[in-house]
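Observation: inputs received (chain + S-adenosylmethionine).
Thought: call the complex predictor directly.
Action: predict_structure
Action Input:
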Amino acid sequence: MSAIDALPPLREVINTHGLVARKSLGQNFLLDLNLTAKIARQAGDLSGMDVLEIGPGPGGLTRGLLAEGARRVLAIEKDRRCLPALEEVAAAYPGRLQVIEGDALEIDPLAHLTPPIAICANLPYNVGTELLVRWLTPPDWPPFWDSLTLMFQREVAERIVAQPGSKAYGRLAVLAQWRCDARIVLSLPPSAFTPPPKVSSAVVHLRALPEPRYSADPKLLEKVVATAFNQRRKMLRAALKGLAPDIEERLRSVGIAPTDRAEQVPLEGFCALARTFEG
Ligand code: SAM
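Observation:
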């Protein structure tokens, strides 16, 4: 199971370092190194790339990323109990792993990374969506990263890749698909993790497009989409009436029926509607 490197198997690592999983930190560890190497491979060719990993824990995915040839890995971990285990990984891959202890929501990783950059992580469920939204809404596009390869609860993964007309389609789908190609590349049952979570998980791979699929001001698009899905069961003429008194005309002018609901509107429609608010 640990044939990808000369380090001890992960079960031994968590026993040696007393890494009893903490629910408050979203700790569901991957202990099968064949699986972590497989997840790392979903990120594509990592040679010549810096990889940002959030929440390395005992280092299973970190080892996968290094064994698969990442030029460097920068790992941000909040739980200091994991640091000795990660030091052992760093020693086995000299000069290729830097670990920062801290909260990924508060640390700016950019100073420690050199492009091209990939982000790959088995994210803690409590901060996963927030981190994704931050990575998808940088001040400038293209972003600092080329691709995101991220483990989420299955339900969140489905919201990212959802198509119009489905219940899962919402703000996350529009944000992700407007400027990225997004697909689910791997599905994992609860039994893949220690301890097993209550729900299934999936890995989503997002590749940043050089430019948005349709032009729109990011802030206006975000506002229109958030308002529309905030009351997703209402017709758009009611859900969006706070945005402009002439919202029905605006909707019709871009080919959207005012009686439609948010989940029926494709990405292109939201972008066209956002453009009516420009200037
Ligand atoms: N990558 C490891 C694996 O696959 O086995 C662990 C994944 S576990 C789902 C999430 C990890 O994120 C834990 O190690 C946890 O301590 C860490 N974590 C939780 N909240 C964090 C935060 N705000 N910033 C950085 N790391 C965090």
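Thought: report the result.
Final Answer: The first helix runs from residue 10 to 16. Residues 128 and 152 are 7 Å apart (CA to CA).
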